Automatic annotation (TrEMBL), chains A, B:
It is an enzyme of class 2 (transferase). InterPro entries: CofD (IPR002882), CofD-like_dom_sf (IPR038136), FbiA/CofD (IPR010115). GO terms for molecular function: LPPG:FO 2-phospho-L-lactate transferase activity; magnesium ion binding. This is 2-phospho-L-lactate transferase. Its EC number is 2.7.8.28. It comes from Auraticoccus cholistanensis.
Length: 332, 332
């Protein structure tokens, strides 16, 4: 069984661990968001790809939820002593080795997908069931337009990382743009994986800055739409709030209500020009499923908390199998 | 009083600490060797400049003699886990912050001299008496041609760092080249400092791979030759052996005997086309001074061990003042 998962970082990696637990024989291709990527201190940093790799390797710091466990901070302390900006983005010592390797390989002309493969081989081993692909080898960066009373224009555009890590997603969001996305092409393997998949899953990652950019790479949305496999999406909005992250700050800026059903409608049914066959929401949002009537989306409500890989696997299997309302079973 | 010192790394920095102790009112411009510089893991590393900066800041590791005290090795451990070559060159975590900053500034278009100034300001403060200049802003690298029985040609060319750190200076040396030196120009400030100096000193650094490259940058040798100040050199060869480093392996490859007087003759007297007015050797080499007769060099024998800055200061003052044999006092 071949499964393709479109995913962001922290939530996406928990979801993929659930997918692996749900389908112990399956091979899983993860198409990861790279629009969070950023260059700092001359290092090319891919937060979502690294979070995915570290998490699947069991090497992620369980308390912080990002970065490596057993991490050191000597380089960062020293950069701070140099007053080398940005000092608001923490880079662990072990993590920096990843970025050094990536930056050097990119400078030598290797595409990000090849770099990602090398890093994944080290962390996951050569016989891993997971293949991690960046959505694109091209540079795409999410920039957020925020209100800024100190700016003459009353607004300012910042990199997503600055919005999230430095500004704690506090300033009102006026707009979101994925810079460079219109010229990006899907990384080698992405379209082929979608065409060959037995099942396509959208992780409950941020619809605006994680899943949004992946689908936004020209050709990816079309490949999802035309994939022979069923496409099932899972809501990261539970009871009107994101489980993780700051989607509640970003969804309104793209005209989407912070509501599980609204996000499902935002993705849309493949039968009506969208990318999903079924949308799975949390049990707490069962009532909102009524809003999907007429959308063409099959839908299911189920507890969606990703507390453990086993609980995550359970809701993934349930979501894929379909509900008692008779929507077709999408995979066995 | 303005003093210019041409210097390498470990020995050079001990010597400069002696100069500062000997002349507490002087301003000292150090022209540092950059031909040891190397790019590893995408980081531009300037071992001699950094050793000088760290040592003058009192931040150098006293046991290793290089790198920062209170250093960590997490990045390096991780690079080794990635099998990211070269793994034979140790980079400390704190040290890596220096290299990140330098690499980034160079990539942004700043010349090495500006980068060096920024780093020195952090480590030595804005009011330091020392100005550290790289010999050149251009890329110059010492390559060593060594015997290699496993190579079809019987030889191999390696970067100086590989020769010294990885091969422990063990293979027979067939030749030494400073790649790029013929196209290099002195860094901003080097020629002006030599022209304005009250005293020019050659540290007892390696004549082949430290002082050699500094003098080899087109224009520097001529500026030393025509400097209005006296030029005094100090031998790093004591009793036929280098106090530090591997000059004994390299001198024969450039046709110079491993002997204090022979090195003095290699530098030569300014009155006879060389760069020195006086050559100072260790007391143990007093007998060899006879070999300097007719060379035009004034000479002096004095204990030259750089055990403490104070002892170093003593021999520097003695060397500069001149000997009881009546050679002219070069500075007060």
């Amino acid at each position: 069984m071949q499964i393709v998962v479109l995913a962001g970082g922290v939530g996406g990696s928990r979801f993929v661990r659930g997918v692996l637990a749900a389908y112990p024989q399956a091979r899983v291709t993860v198409v990861g968001n790279t629009a969070d990527d950023i260059t700092m201190h001359g290092l090319r940093i891919c937060p979502d790809l690294d979070t995915m790799t570290y998490a699947l390797a069991g090497a992620i710091d369980p308390d912080r939820g990002w970065g490596l466990a057993d991490e050191g901070w000597r380089v960062m302390e020293e950069l701070r002593a140099h007053q080398a900006e940005p000092t608001w983005f923490n880079l662990g010592d072990r993590d920096i080795a990843t970025h050094l390797l990536r930056t050097q390989m990119l400078a030598a002309g290797h595409p990000l997908s090849e770099v990602t493969r090398v890093l994944a081989r080290r962390w996951l081993g050569a016989d891993s069931r997971v293949e991690l692909l960046p959505m694109t080898d091209d540079r795409v960066e999410t920039h957020v337009r925020v209100a800024d009373p100190h700016s003459p224009s009353g607004e300012r555009v910042v990199h997503f990382q600055e919005f999230w890590v430095r500004l704690h997603a506090e300033p009102p969001v006026l707009g979101v743009a994925q810079v460079g996305i219109e010229r990006a092409t899907p990384a080698e393997g992405v379209l082929a994986a979608l065409a060959a998949a037995d099942l396509v899953l959208l992780a409950p990652s941020n619809p605006v800055v994680s899943i949004g950019p992946v689908l936004g790479v020209p050709g990816v949305r079309e490949a999802v739409r035309s994939a022979p496999a069923p496409v099932v999406g899972f809501s990261g909005i539970l009871s009107g709030r994101p489980v993780l992250g700051m989607a509640d700050k970003l969804l309104p800026a793209v005209g989407v209500e912070v509501d599980a059903a609204a996000v499902g409608l935002h993705y849309g049914a493949r039968s009506a020009g969208g990318v999903l066959d079924r949308w799975v929401v949390d049990s707490a949002d069962a009532a909102s499923l009524a809003r999907l009537r007429g959308s063409g989306l099959a839908a299911l409500a189920h507890p969606l908390l990703m507390t453990t890989p086993e609980l995550t696997a359970e809701f993934i299997r349930a979501g894929v199998a379909g509900g008692p309302d008779g929507d077709r079973a999408l995979a066995s």
